[in-house]
Design brief:
Blueprint lengths: L1 H15 L12 H8 L4 H7 L4 H6 L3 H5 L6 H8 L9 H8 L3 E3 L4 E5 L6 E6 L4 E2 L8 E5 L7 E5 L5 E9 L4 E11 L1 E5 L2 E5 L11 E6 L5 E6 L8 E10 L6 E9 L9 E10 H16 L1
Antiparallel strand pairs: 1-2, 2-3, 3-15, 4-7, 5-6, 6-15, 7-14, 8-13, 8-15, 9-10, 11-12, 11-14
InterPro entries: F-box-like_dom_sf, F-box_dom, PP2-like
Protein name: F-box protein pp2-a13
């Protein structure tokens, strides 16, 4: 009994003296890096602040290579003209997660910070719009509400046709394509957002048609009445599948309302968005919430 008590006391003294205690700093860096590799990029960045071991482990190349899209070399070299040699994978992820402009500033590319999915946006200036050169019908107007700082504004027209095309090397997966549109022209007055609806008309008479086509036969068509006055809405055109990430994917898309029995006007065309279908589902859910409200 006395011997057992003495043994317990000696172990407690050892614990109290800290000889058997372990701290986070004592975990091997390789073990920390392995654990971090199973987390999403935002979680990795948060844990990198814990201590120097976690910070060093969070920079391991094998962690970030698994977060990068499979075509990251194409994105850096062919699209952005950057030299990949010597770059750490964490730095590559940080560079690609920022907005990267190309094609004369009419297109932007970035990867989603949560899952590394490739996203693209095409501005109204990167599309072909019937009558865009006639100021009686269309104008390019500046706005802070567009990532491109400008939108195409329709005052009035009989024949609405907006066409675009894209050639891009996507990683394998399923993607969604959206038109970002708004009815009404927004301005600021005394610091408040005000929507001018003077030119808004004709959209309740006939639906507009969205279309997506690809050389391999994939096609999507959707129709809807526009009613989003003063609210930017991502209108879902359709989804497409990329099977071979080593070849360039070619896409054509359009927005039309060519019923010439009536005029329509007051439409702002901002951009077209292409994103992984997981993000597309979030956008569609968000749009549904807006409509419900």
């Amino acid at each position: 009994m006395g011997a057992n008590a003495s043994s317990i006391d000696s172990r407690e003294d050892g614990l109290n003296n800290g000889s058997l205690k372990r701290k986070l700093e004592d975990i091997p860096e390789a073990c920390v890096a392995l654990v971090l590799s199973y987390l999403d990029p935002p979680e990795i960045c948060k844990l990198a602040r814990v201590n120097r071991v976690f910070r060093a482990a969070s920079s391991a190349d094998f962690i970030w290579e698994s977060k990068l899209p499979s075509n990251y070399i194409y994105l850096l070299k062919e699209l952005l003209g950057m030299n990949v040699a010597g770059m750490h994978k964490k730095d590559i992820f940080a560079r690609l997660s920022k907005t990267n402009s190309f094609d004369g500033g009419t297109k932007e590319m970035w990867i989603d910070k949560n899952n590394g999915g490739v996203c693209l946006a095409i501005s109204s200036k990167g599309m072909t719009i019937t009558g865009i050169d006639d100021r009686r019908y269309w104008n390019h107007i500046p706005t802070e509400e567009s990532r491109f700082q400008t939108v195409a504004y329709l005052q009035q027209i009989w024949w609405l046709e907006v066409d675009g095309d894209l050639e891009f090397q996507f990683p394998a997966g399923t993607y969604s394509l959206f038109f970002r549109l708004q009815l009404g022209r927004v301005a600021k007055r005394l610091g408040r957002r005000v929507c001018n609806t003077d030119h808004v008309h004709g959209w309740d008479l006939k639906p507009v048609q969205f279309q997506l086509t690809m050389p391999n036969g994939q096609r999507a068509i959707s129709r809807c009445y526009l009613d989003n006055v003063g609210t930017w809405t991502h209108h879902h055109v359709g989804d497409f599948v990329v099977e071979d990430p080593t070849v360039v994917t070619k896409i054509k898309f359009s927005l039309i309302q060519i019923d010439c029995t009536h005029t329509k006007g007051g439409l702002c065309v901002d951009s077209v968005l292409v994103c992984p279908i997981s993000l597309g589902k979030e956008l569609r859910s968000f749009n549904s919430l807006i409509v419900t409200k």
